Structures are given as structure tokens and as C-alpha cells.
Amino acid sequence: MKIAFLGPHASFTQLAATQLFPDEDLLPQANILDCFHAVSQGEAEKAVVPLENSIEGTVSMTLDYLYKTPSVKIEAEAVMPIAHHLMIHPENNVEDIERIHSHPQALAQSFHFLDTHYKGVPRQDFSSTAAAAKYVSENKDLKIAAVANQFAANLYGLKIVNRNIQDFEQNHTRFIVISKEQNTYRNDSLQVLGEKSGMLINLPEDHPGGLHQVLSVFAWRKMNLSKIESRTLKTGLGNYFFFINVEGPWNDVLHGNALLELQSMNAEVDFLGNYKEYLLQS
Questions:
Q1: pTM (2 decimals)?
Q2: 110 CB contacts (<8 Å, ≥6 apart)?
Q3: Cα-trace Rg, the chain
Q4: Is the N or the C terminus of the chain less surrounded, counting Cβ atoms within 10 Å?
């Protein structure tokens, strides 16, 4: 089975994908949109993409493409602790670092450490932490460093000079497995954290109390919402769709009737699936 993931090799998404699909053929993709295209066009059966980071928040592109690609659903969710390390070419010295490269989120998540220990050293954005590590490995004549993970250090033969430089210990990223199927993913080797349902809701029109009406559908049924995220429809100011997570296993009566009530309000509902949430290792 072919599994697409947000690349390149040694990215955090690959770390997640290798644990979720240890025996499958993993295909790195240049961006999140390519992951969705790979699934929707049948180039891969499934894909692994990031959904949310506990520090930087929701990955907006993932939500946008979930909305724009109705054929794609969510099969599983996985949470992985994120550890950032500062690494250099093994032939260079940490005292000589003149520039630090990494993905913008990794630099933001390590801001205080870098500002304290490498104050004044310029930072440069890269498309991914792995790409930054690869660049450092290929340019030993440059006095540069990368913020990346242990996998990248091993893959590109870099020397870690500072470990766990993320500013917050509780730094986790939530990934989702997307495919054209629902409720088919299962992995008995991973710890299950819980179960939830995901859905995208588009209100029929903007009117006072519209969102309250939607939320009341879940409130009076005592259904716990663990996430409510609004995203612009890009059709004009004030036009949004909502991504909602409902905690708990699927119940035909409770969940089914909630969806019917939403539809009776003329709300557009794209049910993404009921799926398990797994815990991964960093």
C-alpha cells in the first residue's frame, strides 16, 4: 500500500507515518496539497498530514484542503511529542555558527532558547526542518546550523550540539490519516488515547445566532466538543466554515440525529468520519 506524507525525508510527518504504517511504501510529497491530490487522484491509498501543533495552533492549509476535497475523509488521528535539536556539520564548531536554518514553526517553537544562547545570530526559513538539515550536511564550508529532529541528524550525519531546545515541554503535533475511506484504520501496537468524530459545517447564511444554533445541537445532547475552528471560505469577508470535533465513540441515535438536525437547519455538513486517536513516540 502506498502512503503519501508531507516530506521531505526525515520530516516530523515521516516520523509519524513510519509509526502509523511501519510496513508500507511511504511517498514524500512537497506540500500538503500534493498529499490531498495523491489520495483524491488514486496515486496513494492514504496520506499523513499535520493538523495542529500545541504551540503554533492549527495548520490552516490542512483544514482548507479538507473542505475543498470532499472525497477525502479522516481515518485516524495521532499525537506525537515534538523535540527540536540544534545540529551542525560534524567538521564545524558550535562557536562559529553564523546562521540558523529551519522551518518557521520550528524556529518559533525554539525562539527563547535561540534568543538566549544565540542572540544576534540570523535565522533563515526553510521549507522543512529536514530540508534545513540536508542543506547543512551539504555545505560544510558554511558556518550554519539547523533546528531539526534526531531522525534528520542520523540521516544526514549531523552533530547535535543542543538537545530539546523547544521552549515548551508540552510541545505536541497532531497528525491525521486521510483517505477516501472511513473507519478502516486500526493499529493494535499503538496506544489509543480516545475516539472522536470530525465534521465540516457551513452555515446557510450569516444571521444573528447562527453559530449558537449549530452549537446547541450538540449542547442539549451533552455531546462534548473538543475543537471548534473557523476558516474563511475565501468568498468574502465574514464568510466561514467550521471544523468541529465531537468526543466519544459513534452512537447511531445520538450522532445520527445530531447530523439530521443540522441538515434540517439547511447547514451543509461534510462528515469526515469517526476515528481513533493514537499516541506516537518522538
A1: 0.85
A2: 84, 86, 102, 147, 165, 166, 167
A3: 21
A4: N
